[in-house]
Design a protein that fits this description.
238 residues, mainly alpha, 9% strand
Length: 238
């Protein structure tokens, strides 16, 4: 289990992170209350096969070419919604179940379903398809990140994720004091954590090849397997 307090103790250790956390903590109290109460458990049990099955259940998203939809920023980030759904269900859902849960569950409805209906009412019918495409794209992005975590954890690495780490401290995933970016590229948290003592380290998974799995584009499994072996050598040298 990973709690918000554990995340706060680990990452809220520099002047930069304290500024970010205090600013976030002072604003939307309903968001703060939800995120600080969140516990990541089920997300750490998800397997790579389960992620692939969820990818195959999702439709391929189309364009989100309505400006109001592209710029839509509900109070709860999609990461908050997705993590809530996984923990409430105790497992990773496919797209149909995710959509149904967001409509039926009171918390998820307030986080995503109701704000979505409100923005559609403002934009009009042309916004409905664009918003659906945006939510599907966000869902697939979440699956891509969870896939990386699932593969690495399958190699015995204690990789962790939590919505507080993601949305406030810009940490996508971590194992001990090693920060990982499942999507590759620039580490979002580097500027926030560069002055931490003891230091954090940032790992490049070295993923350069991707494969289509259902509606998602996932890192090639063989490259993730090699990355996991490299991380094991770094974290647990013989």
């Amino acid at each position: 289990m990973t709690t918000a307090m554990e995340v706060r103790r680990l990452f809220n250790v520099t002047q930069e992170t304290r500024f970010h956390f205090n600013h976030w903590y002072s604003r939307r109290k309903h968001v703060v209350a939800h995120v600080m109460a969140h516990e990541s458990v089920a997300v750490h049990r998800v397997t790579a096969d389960e992620v692939e099955a969820a990818c195959r259940s999702a439709p391929r998203p189309g364009p989100t070419d309505v400006p109001e939809i592209r710029g839509w920023r509900p109070d709860f980030a999609f990461a908050h919604v997705a993590h809530h759904v996984v923990e409430a269900l105790g497992r990773l859902p496919g797209w149909p179940e995710f959509r149904e849960f967001c409509e039926a569950d009171e918390q998820a409805r307030g986080m995503l379903w109701t704000p979505a209906r409100e923005v559609i009412a403002e934009v009009g019918p042309e916004g409905r398809a664009a918003l659906r495409n945006r939510v599907v794209s966000e869902f697939l992005g979440f699956l891509r990140d969870v896939y990386v975590v699932a593969v690495l954890r399958g190699h015995g690495l204690d990789v962790r994720v939590h919505p507080l780490a993601d949305t406030v401290f810009k940490v996508d995933a971590w194992v001990e004091r090693l920060i990982l970016n499942p999507r590759g590229g620039r580490q979002r948290s580097a500027e926030l954590l560069v002055h931490a003592m003891p230091p954090f380290f940032f790992a490049d998974l070295g993923v350069s090849e991707y494969a289509q799995v259902g509606a998602a584009v996932l890192p090639v499994r063989a490259q993730l397997d090699r990355a996991a072996r490299r991380l094991r050598d770094v974290l647990h040298p013989a």
